Amino acid sequence: MDVLDLARWQFAITTVYHFFFVPITIGMSALVAWFHTRWLIKRNPEDMRLAKFFGKLFTINFALGLVTGIVQEFQFGMNWSSYSRFVGDIFGAPLAFEALLAFFLESTFLGLWIFGWGKLPEKLHVASIWLVHIGTVLSAYFILAANSFMQNPVGYRFNPETGRAEMADFIAVLTNKVQLVTFPHVITASYMVGGAFVMAIAFHKMRQAHRGQAATYDGVGGPDEVPMWRRSARLGAVVTLISALAVVITGDIQGKIMTEVQPMKMAAAEALYDTPPDGECAPFSVLTVAGLGGENPQHIIEIPCLLSYLGTGAWDGQVQGMVEIENEYRAKFADNELTQSDTYIPPIAMSYWNFRLMMGAGFLTAGIALLVLWFTRKKAEMPLQGWWKPLLVLAPISVVLGHSFGWIFTEIGRQPWVVFGEMTTAQGVSPSVGATDVWISMIVYTLLYGVLAVVEVKLFLDYIKKGAEPFEEPQLLEDDDKLAFSY
Amino acid sequence: MDLVTFWFILLAVLWTGYLVLEGFDFGVGMLVPVLGGTKRGPAPEAQEQEKKRRVLLTTIGPHWDGNEVWLLTAGGATFAAFPHWYATMFSGMYLALLLILVALIVRNMGFEYRYKRDSESWRTRWDAAIIFGSIAAPLLVGTGLTNLVYGMPMEEHMSGQTAYTEFTGNLFSLLNPVSLLGGITITVLCLVHGAHFVALKTEGAIRHEARALATKAGVAAAVLAVLLLLWLGIMHGSIWSWITTVLAAGALLAAIFFNLKDAEGKAFVGTSLTILFAVATYFLMLFPNAINGRGEDPALTLEAAASSPLTLKIMTGAALVFTPIMLIYTVWSYWVFRKRISTEHIATPVEVNA
Questions:
Q1: B87 in reach of chain A (CB within 8 A)
Q2: What domain range is A75 assigned to?
Q3: Does the pLDDT at position B354 exceed 50?
Q4: Dist. CA B165–CA A81, nearest whole Å
Q5: Contact assignment for B91 to A81 by CB distance below 8 Å
Q6: Is position A114 within any domain?
Q7: Inter-chain CB proximity B307 and A74 less than 8 Å
Q8: Mind telling me which residue stretches traverse the membrane in this protein (chain A) (predicted)?
Q9: Domain coordinates of chain B in residue numbers?
Q10: Is the pLDDT of residue A215 over 70?
Q11: Which CATH code for domain B3-154+166-340?
């Protein structure tokens, strides 16, 4: 592998790994804030217990999102210095905004929330966890604006004097049409993750409580906890389903915008080689065997005209095939070092399958959420069936992987570009960093991330097992009191 | 003042903020085995030491994460305001930055996970991560920053009609004597700064032990700092950098003096000012470059490294509006946790039958 492949692999490993934790952080912070707020309003001890229980799980997860995020901030300069030079004038600003507006907010108020028990007046304490959540959402906005620039560069001009892309209109960068649909797509998909985690964990605890197995703290954890967990499981399921609906709607709009700005990506997502003849629509295949790499893929389940609809909003809309688009691009981009490429077609099988896996993963989680709602309805008996176990593990994991599939599709489908139409990925890599250096860093990241994943998952499961602490009436501490929370 | 110079000064401010704030939490991390001891187990003495370690970590608990954001902001601001600086420095210091990242990662995980399981071996391991990270990170950050001043091996390239530089060395060209001295000096300075912070934020035996240690380490830091700034000053000094050098030395001596007088707040301000003047000295020795060239090698100038006027204008507007807001809630969070902590305040952990 040459240094370009290595740098790409490393970026893929570190970014996909980072993004396991990001949607959990965004989604769970909102639900923890919800429970904490509900305690403030209704004074129901269960809400306080739930806020603390899910709060702990949230912080266990937040830790990894945080540390792997630092790597992301540095990686552009470390491995993609030519890219950073070329677009830094535009791309750097949202990153700086993210640090100044979002990271400070998240970290300061999370510190206040974790250490604030007994110190902060309750309303401020609840406000702190909301500000953490707002910080996570702001952070997503800025980093997605940066990514949207790579997908669909706007608000810039090329300056021949400095040999780089420069800012022309920052508002245009922040309101890129790709951004305006990607942001709600990612945020609602993150709420889906938060909902799925709360749903699955609470459903599991409900079953345990019913059997009397959740009693780890003195006097709590028995069948009296069933209503608390049942209610949380239902809340999680509802959040999952509402978010899933929003994900589908935003995803649908996104598909149309993507067909417009990057027709190649959507053609690759369907392995559509040839533009359908005039007057014919493009079908969408659900399953294909073999042949994705050739000119005649064998679609075995095909829905007529669906691709035309997904791409254009009209059942008879015209969708271009890859061959035609590539010919256009060759004519347009071949004479510039930054934009010339052997092929302008992205890896087709990766695009095709990740697109489908993304949707399938999301639908799977939504389906489980429906089941949960049905099995926890008022008159239902306690769902003690053995087959719930794998479903409960699958529900949150599937939607998290859905995020990964979606991102892999988005990024792979953009290839060979790093900035669409402006710079190929091959041109962006750091010239002063050798293959040995990247081998070393990639191995170090992989090992370190692997160890941390094992530690994290084990801790996460332990805390699920421990269950919710017994309720304690919160009160402000006097000077000589022991701290309510300390390291 | 033009915006390029303004952003150069703003980066100096961000680095000062980072080293003053994370500087003390690095120091506290290093002091865990020194002030908190290394005995573990059920013996009463070991239990008392464990409480001390928890006191130390709790003083920085609500703050270390926010402190670290100053580094991310410095990185992001460098990217936005000086893309070539960001690109040359981050790709040039590749393996050193990897080590910094590893140090920060294991250290942060230590803070966040140490208290999450009641097991001696678990705590021992995370303490090792905290101590390693707290020493390695300032050592490497200091070495890296000193390299910018001392000069990096670079060659010139063209982008359009703009000349920028690309790093030509390797990890070992960064590990030169003066840069290593820079790393050691900043690490010891963080140690002193952290000891002042502990003296300011705790009560009981630990407070007195911190004060005693701060004096000894303060003298060592003063000797190292004078050596370092003389060495760099002879190569790159100007009248202004000599003035800030004297101010840095003066602030450090004042800090030692106040610490001896048990004026903990003033001692902490003293080491904060030392860091401020040291960063000012570094930046004055850089100006008008972003990175000095090693020997005859070309430098990366601020002018070549900078973003377009429009980007700098947008960034300036954002900085002027949002920095004060950020400072207000940061100061407020320090106010909320202003009380001194002692081993009396540490609750014994609730036993959980996991």
A1: yes
A2: 3-262+351-466
A3: no
A4: 11
A5: yes
A6: yes
A7: no
A8: 20-41, 53-71, 91-115, 127-150, 183-203, 235-254, 355-375, 387-409, 438-461
A9: 3-154+166-340
A10: no
A11: 1.20.1630.10
Looking at residue A436, its pLDDT comes to 96
Note the pLDDT tens digit of each residue in A266-320.
999 988 888 888 878 888 887 776 566 665 667 778 888 888 888 888 888 888 8
Stretch A31-46: mean pLDDT? 97
Q: Which residues partner with A165 through β-bridges? A: A158
- A74/B97 Cβ within 8 A: yes
Q: How many angstroms away from the CA of B258 is the closest CA of chain A?
A: 27
List all residues 6 or more positions away from A117 whose beta carbon is below 8 Å from its beta carbon: A125, A474, A484, A485
**Distance of alpha carbon B240 from its chain centroid, rounded?**
23
Average pLDDT, chain A: 93
Out of A76, A463, A481, name the one closest to residue B79 (CB): A76
Q: Do A70 and B101 touch (CB under 8 A)?
A: yes
Residue range A1-29: mean pLDDT, rounded = 96
Neighbours of A188 (CB within 10 A): 20
Rounded to the nearest angstrom, the minimum Cα separation between A437 and chain B is: 7
Mean pLDDT of chain B: 95
Domain count, chain A: 1
User: B84 CB near a chain A CB, below 8 Å?
Assistant: yes
- Helices A226-261 & A177-211 angle (0-180, nearest 10): 160
How far apart are alpha carbons A43 and A120 in whole angstroms?
A: 17
Q: Of B137, B129, B110, which Cα lies nearest the Cα of B27?
A: B137
The answer to whether the Cβ–Cβ distance between B91 and A430 falls below 8 Å is yes
Structure-block tokens of residue A31 = 């639900």
Nearest CA in chain B to A467: B354
CB-based contact (8 Å) between B316 and chain A? no
Least Cα distance to A459 among B221, B161, B352, B5 occurs for B352
Name the least confident of A80-89, A111-120, A307-316, B145-154: A307-316
Cα–Cα dist A449/A18, whole Å: 9
Compute how many other C-beta atoms are within 10 angstroms of the C-beta atom of residue A1: 12
Is the Cβ of B130 closer than 8 Å to some Cβ of chain A? no
- Can you tell me the ipTM of this complex? 0.95
- Span A138-194, pLDDT tens digits: 999 999 999 999 999 999 999 999 999 999 999 999 999 999 999 999 999 999 999
